[in-house]
Specification:
Elements (H helix, E strand, L loop, with lengths): L4 E4 L5 H9 L3 E4 L7 E5 L2 E4 L6 E2 L1 H9 L3 E4 L3 H12 L11 H12 L3 E8 L2 E11 L2 E9 L4 H16 L3 E5 L3 H4 L4 E4 H12 L11 H10 L1 E2 L1
Parallel strand pairs: 5-12, 9-10
Antiparallel strand pairs: 1-3, 2-3, 4-10, 4-11, 6-7, 7-8, 8-9
Helix pairs in contact: 5-8
Length: about 220
């Protein structure tokens, strides 16, 4: 699954999960119906450098037009459900988000550790992502899109919020062409752990409020892809 080591998980609890993420290990299931969750520790890791984030020119124009309303942490269950459904549309026969992982992340969300970025078109949720915040690190878990550019817009707003909140590391798990256009790159397990150790010592806070002017300043500061 990972090109690294996969170990069957013990009972999947919030405390165990936070400890695992803190050393660079994350849970995945083979399929949605599986009762088994594996701890995944890839030999190489995808990250999106927050200080070297790129935005394609066309997407920059779209972002300035504000086609969607951006909300955070208002529809967690819908986001994770849509991420699970979207996963099966990208070449996988089934999603790695099984009931145990859903329960875990709902608990993490209730405790303020997990967060969403959501794109809304009126009353329609058309795109978004979710992940876990720990210290100055954010672990991106999954994203989905039901409208043109919705997941890309959600990612740009995520990075802007992480920068605003003082985060220094964005974990992307496994890089793919969708993410490399934004500056994602692959690093070794050892390098990732070094970055993670530094990030965990950084004070950071998920921004509950995010002024529109802060996003405009963010757009002005990032590079073209």
């Amino acid at each position: 699954m990972s090109g690294g080591s996969d170990t069957p998980a013990l009972e999947l609890t919030v405390n165990l999960a936070l400890k695992a993420y803190g050393v660079g290990v994350f849970p995945m299931a083979e399929q949605s119906s599986s009762d088994v969750v594996y701890w995944v520790d890839p030999r190489t890791r995808g990250i999106i450098p927050l200080d070297d984030f790129h935005v394609p020119k066309r997407l920059r124009r779209t972002l300035r037009q504000r086609p969607f309303a951006i909300r955070t942490d208002t529809a967690f269950d819908r986001v994770i459900d849509d991420c699970a459904e979207s996963t099966t549309q990208k070449g996988r026969e089934d999603t790695w988000i099984n009931p145990a992982i859903r329960r875990l992340f709902r608990e993490l969300f209730d405790l303020g550790h997990a967060h969403t970025v959501e794109c809304w078109d009126g009353d329609r949720l058309v795109g978004g992502l979710y992940g876990l915040a720990l210290g100055g690190a954010f672990f991106g878990e999954s994203m989905f899109s039901r409208a043109t550019d919705a997941s890309k817009i959600a990612l740009a707003h995520l990075v802007a919020r992480l920068d605003y909140g003082g985060f220094v590391l964005l974990d992307a798990q496994f890089p793919n062409p969708h993410l490399t256009q934004f500056g994602a790159r692959e690093i070794t397990r050892a390098n990732f752990r070094r970055l993670l150790d530094k990030a965990l010592d950084r004070p950071a806070q998920w921004p509950k409020a995010f002024p529109p002017a802060a996003f405009e300043r963010f757009l002005d500061s990032v590079k073209d892809a």
